[in-house]
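User: Assemble these into one structure.

Assistant: Restating your components, then the assembled model:
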Amino acid sequence: MTPRKRLVGLGAFALASSLVLTACGGNGGGDDTGEGDASTGIVSVGNGEPQNPIIPTMTNETFGSKVTSNVFAGLVYYDAEGVVHNEVAESIESDDNKTWTITLKDGWTFSDGTPVTAQSFVDAWNYGAYGPNAQNLSYFFEPIEGFADVQVPTDDAGEPTGEDPAAEELSGLEVVSDTEFVVTLAQPESDFPLRLGYSAFYPLPESFFDDPEAFGEAPIGNGPYVLENWEHNALIELRPNESYAGEREVQNGGVDLVAYTDEDSAYNDLLDGNLDIVTNVPASAFGTFEDELGERAVNQPAAVVQVMNVPEYNEKFQGEAGLMRRQAISMAIDRNQITETVFSGSRTPASDFTSPVISGWSEDVEGSEVLDFNPDEAKKLWDEAEAIEPWGDEPLYIASNADSDHQSWIDPTCNGIRDTLGIDCEFDAYPTFDEFLDARDNNEIKGLFRGGWQADYPAMSNFLGPIYGTGAGSNDMGYSSKEFDDKLKEANGASDPDEAVELYKEAETILFNDLPGIPLWYNNATGGWSENVDNVVFGWDSDPLLYQVTKSE
Amino acid sequence: MPENRYEKAPRPGQGHYVAAPEDVKVGVVDAVSTDEAPSSMWREAWREMSHRPLFWVSVAMILVVIVVALVPGLFTSQLPRQGCSLANSLLPPSGEHFFGTDKNGCDIYTRTLFGAKASVLVGLLTTAFVVVIGTVIGAVAGYYGGWLDTILSRLTDIFFAVPFVLAAIVILSIVPSRSALAVALVLASFGWTTIARITRGAVLSVKNNEFVTASKALGMSRAAILWRHVLPNSAAPIIVYSTVALGTFIVAEATLTFLGIGLDPSTVSWGGDLSAGRSSIRTNAEIMFYPAAALAFTVLGFIMLGDVVRDALDPKARKR
Amino acid sequence: MLWYLGRRLLQVIPVFIGATLLLYALVFLRPGDPVAALGGERGLPEAVQQQIRAQFHLDQPFFVQYLYFLKGIFTFDLGNTFTGRPVSEVVADALPITFQLAIMALLIETVFGIGFGLFAGLRKGKLFDSTVLVLSLLLIALPTFVTGLVLQIVVGVQLDWLPVTAGRDPDVVSLLMPAVVLATTSFAQILRLTRTSVIENVTADFVRTARAKGLSRGRVVNRHVLRNSLIPVVTFIGVDLGNLMTGSIVTEGIFNINGVGGTLFDAISRGESVTIVTMSTVIVLVYIVANLLVDLLYAVLDPRIRYA
């Protein structure tokens, strides 16, 4: 019930994910028979106004990424299950997980006719990483050697010194030929190829560098669609790209991304047949949409996990008593009841720190019992903590921004905690998102605070390192565990994917023992489509795979 | 409303006198008579009101609301956030839950009773702020005119420019807690301009009446004329506007809450419950009925009272 | 008269300066750091934030920021929003549709408000009066996020009488539902104001006199009752045009209209000072013109009010 959605923090949350396997299997054959089967109707999809110019390294929210992922093609792409397939890349190889040799397929061009070469990738990445360009996704290039040298120099206090960065290009990127380049990472990262389908790593044509501002309004890419027209706050028209050379063959006459500011209105338009696909079902329809749409509804876990974070600076959550409190609170939350009643099944109770759509996810990571509803044990642990150090009269606060509907789950969560632990519990509401961020970043939050994480690429590592690693960009709790950091490093360097998964699970166990955050539930992809379209499949990232949707005129 | 004794318009030939309407104003007669007992204007209004059953009905309604707001515990043994359990979510009305339960499993009857305090406080405080600021500025601007009017009217224009969401975010960050007072300040900060304009308009149309001119001729001070003659005669639109606005302010709190800039989330209010009920609108819209009905009841009480007060203050109507 | 008009128009200048200064001060006082929020939950590197601040002059003192804004106004170059669109374009996009919607809502509430109010006033205490009172209570007691959504589901989806959302190039038909929703609260106000004024004037002596002179009831209502009743109503309508121009965040959201309310709300949430101030200033200009017209109308409705 977000009145208006904005920015990744809010807009990215209610999302969609992979549909049941049978639905995908059905149209696999159709794809192969070639263009003869393609429908010609224009598919309309509920979306919103992109929050940034359409530049891949700038796009960090779902409205914009529906454009970039369809207008651009990267080295690899993800299928509905999040499995990686080469797209522009012919091969991505490394012996040591540190130096990666990337070769490209021949015959790829941008929609303006210029060829897609190794230089197109290297230039785009250098642009994205270069500090003064102020790109939202610049941190994706951090693992590449020489990243620090292209950042704006700062003094000890973090203020820019006014000097230019030491280098203009990443030292870890080297063009070998038109179809080959080498990437050198600062340290081994076994999942590096997995990341390359994310929008930060898309190539850019030469024309971009002449006028980035104009490009942001009318991007030129190498993906299955071209952006034909952008009417701000209203409509983005995507039409098939004739020169696209990849496997994501377009099966429709084009896509219209229609801007909505209210999920209810998009859903009502779908019910009335004015819109073909919605990717967010409004909270008011959680209980009814599966009945109303039947086969045309999607409700599956997404690559989004919601967590209540515990600030490490809060003395009440430190030491032995603090840990017991964390466990007690976690056990006092009846995740099944809340996801069933409050969210009408549009959330899935969490059983770990990642997401069920990620390969390697497991329901019973060691230590995950702490997420089970266990009021007796919770009360016992709380009382033990009380014996060590009394909590006092102050309520337990759960902080969040209030411009998006968080009260609907915080209230019942608090009711449960109050009931089980016998303490007071209150929603600490910040009127705007940036006020909340401000308090969070200045360590002014009074109690626990809401945190949500949506995966950028389908890998367990994406749910762990960026949030719980010491000093990581989204480690807002100030959590620091050498044991955890070492385990992550070990996992990142693992040569065998299965071995890596085991190590990531062990890292999760460390988190369960420390509880820097209390996992609550996974968001579900909730979406639906009209009777006018077929072959609608929602991907691992909660977005429908638009190119394969069919619609007859 | 059965009361309609002012309805009987005189038939032709039955009027008190016959004169060309445009050139001789009966206001002159009025002015002289009221001027003889200047202080009785308000007292007379009171005498007038106390004879009307409608007055007592509306007072009773408002009293009920105020008693509920002050001591909701008289009518329920429960507390608004006590016994809320998701296991009891959205129960139909029963002996245990007169109005049923909401999504969180809280008793709607209890929440409606406890919601009165914050909602009525927001409504009353905002109305009070708006009426005081708006009437003073509007009356002074309209009555004195000239440069005072210019300054005050332009000041009103400037304040009108402030979008209330911006005012809300700034004010809520300055005040120590998001109380009813804070929300009332937010609503008043952009709400007073309307009533200032209305008052100014009403005063402008009254101040040229002959009874005002007559009072001036009789040597009354300008302030006294404004207070004794102009204001009572301009009161009708102010009263009407503010009684309806009282209701819209209570509802506006719901919208503020909906936008995340309303009362502190731990405060129970009708607006908050209306806002929370929105997510049940497709399945259990009836849970919004109770806070809305309580709100309507309150507003009805004030609108009826406003009507009676207006009738009583209206010297034109009192001349039978 | 001309002298009065000229003076009023000159007064726009101090209002402009006062309003922009006040707005700028409020945006300045607004808590939170808009630039920090640009990167979403994940945030942006500090150096990047510094750069954006410098680009939008957010690192400058209050008055310097304000002067940059004035410079922007007078050079017709207001710069870009945080999302990279020219501010002037954003404002120009949102205004026409909101203006159209506001005029429609104003027409609806005026016609129905005055019409119903007139009859309710003439039949004070009768069934019609009471019915209208209950009806207006209903409209007052329900917030627009309820009435709007219910109307949309019932009239738009279930009955299929009107378009569900306004769409991107809305015509009068698709704006009808949002206009009705916008008109509801003000309708109650106009109705009550008209009703009361009618009651006051019906019993006023000069009306009785007119009746006594043998004028027909219809003529009396037309010439005397209505005309003299209109001053508070006209005042309210003038102010309400301004209110309607600020748009409605909620109604626009429900009917997917890309208007002033939503744009302004977004700008405020993001802390985009130039957009907020420009948009609000344009609205104040509309408000000033509307009120000037109302002030001139006073003289028409009541010849005793004169302007020199």
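The radius of gyration of chain B is 24 Å.
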